[in-house]
């Protein structure tokens, strides 16, 4: 599909977070990203049909050669690079790595530079550096492959193929590895023209990775690390005056960035001003193995960079590789009710040096595990939802997991979640709820770890209200609670959310664990279930998860959630051995759903209303999904079929609106709806529409869940873990 406004017209310039047009790709011209943008001799402007002759020439091709960039299986709205935790979340905000700086999810530059020197000629493949006295030629981006755990760029220049892979591992059922806050960067080089070429690779990152205020002084160090059978060179930097358990611009103000390379022949390193280090690499063919002594100093004072240079020597058909990693390490990780909690990785390694050495030693095996998980997700997602659904899963998993992190609480693992890109709360229940399908599918035990602090706070932390809390603290990383009761109350919303998530976890863990879980937490779960029995059939004027739409009374969708949660309480009661309670909650849920159908039915007889007292209205009843997830069978099939048919009458080019009041929608809720109505044509439409938005939107930001179905633009939010809702279709059928 080609939008006329994005037809081929040479090099395009885009400002801010906006990237490329609806059907094409353009490599940014010099100066488009930042004041110190590169002097690039020629840069490819790639559309669906062709590229400019200048780009072809830059890549060493004839002007008549068509160089198409292939996107497998989707052109991501932003490419995940190092996306591993709330504070390690770096993206490429367009699909043109040469000429664009990577950024933190907020859009703040987290500069990373990549240059390949081939037979003495420097080619830029990553970032936007300005290197005095040097003209950097462009590389041809032949393919961008995105999988659930990896982003792989395939470049070509002067008879050499460079594969650059960013791997942010997701390690189901392996808490030790999942706790490691590091991400791999691997470069593989080989000749493609039958000859041998002298190849050198240069990488650097800037101090911008460690703090959002470029006026912040930082200090740094270099060390050789040998452990776990491997040796690496580690460059680390940290704020000179860290503010523990605080943020600036959503970035941590304490902790260190660790930037490491596996030692190999031809490796050199240097720390110093960008204007000194980058030219040195190109002029001398190596770095000085030296560290600038002028420290601490502000990030923007002569812009200190942390650089590695790999002289790979003569490269033929056999692949030569460079392996790096980048991460953010900090201790404590966060606080819970005033107690500082260490990161879980500290339970396995006494220092980040030992952890980094293990991570590098594990690189090849981690790559194979990642490939296996990627294949599993792609194959199973294709089977249940088609290739476009599999593509959406490929760009959602890292984002979902990167909103969370593992800590140790009295020696036991817990997981916390940050409400990214909205309120910044700690473990927000109604943000964990839409993200739930990703965890329910990939690693149900991880869902249990996310639930643990939510339940503990209500049981032991001093939460004063009869319904469930909204979050564990107003500002990550401080889970300070709300013992004064002053929070963003969502009584039915949060009580229902946590009951549904608890039942989903219990259905996917072992039978013994499920029974122990239900029995241990039964008093608080029963308290919330009883609140719902008293309040959910006809909700009062309450806030709910889509709080940007405002409070609403008599909400049909909120009532549906609460009714399903009462049914979930019946399942939990049965697991806890409370037979009478189980029968009671089952009976109430069946009674309420029959009343709900009548209350929610519009007078027209062809759809359900937004609210009981608002005739002629409608909304996506995405809360039908947990009915399918838990196998409750509460919503009558004819009601589901009626809603499915109605939604098809309300479609826009890029999706179905959230409700009658707006043209925007939520991608997570669309996928929940697609899962609920999986046996109806609207399910496939919703998948295709979200794919079309992600593939074509000019809002080139980390996958947004809130966008306009008419304009194809982001409405708000980005990089949020709620995008784990994409896995709703996959999560069905995962129970014991």
TrEMBL record:
<dbReference type="InterPro" id="IPR032514">
    <property type="entry name" value="GtaA_central"/>
</dbReference>
<feature type="domain" description="Glutaminase A central">
    <location>
        <begin position="386"/>
        <end position="730"/>
    </location>
</feature>
<dbReference type="Pfam" id="PF16334">
    <property type="entry name" value="DUF4964"/>
</dbReference>
<dbReference type="InterPro" id="IPR052743">
    <property type="entry name" value="Glutaminase_GtaA"/>
</dbReference>
<feature type="domain" description="DUF4964">
    <location>
        <begin position="71"/>
        <end position="131"/>
    </location>
</feature>
<dbReference type="InterPro" id="IPR033433">
    <property type="entry name" value="GtaA_N"/>
</dbReference>
<feature type="domain" description="Glutaminase A N-terminal">
    <location>
        <begin position="149"/>
        <end position="379"/>
    </location>
</feature>
<dbReference type="Pfam" id="PF16335">
    <property type="entry name" value="GtaA_6_Hairpin"/>
</dbReference>
<feature type="signal peptide">
    <location>
        <begin position="1"/>
        <end position="35"/>
    </location>
</feature>
<dbReference type="InterPro" id="IPR032515">
    <property type="entry name" value="DUF4964"/>
</dbReference>
<keyword id="KW-0732">Signal</keyword>
<dbReference type="InterPro" id="IPR006311">
    <property type="entry name" value="TAT_signal"/>
</dbReference>
<dbReference type="Pfam" id="PF17168">
    <property type="entry name" value="DUF5127"/>
</dbReference>
<protein>
    <submittedName>
        <fullName>DUF5127 domain-containing protein</fullName>
    </submittedName>
</protein>
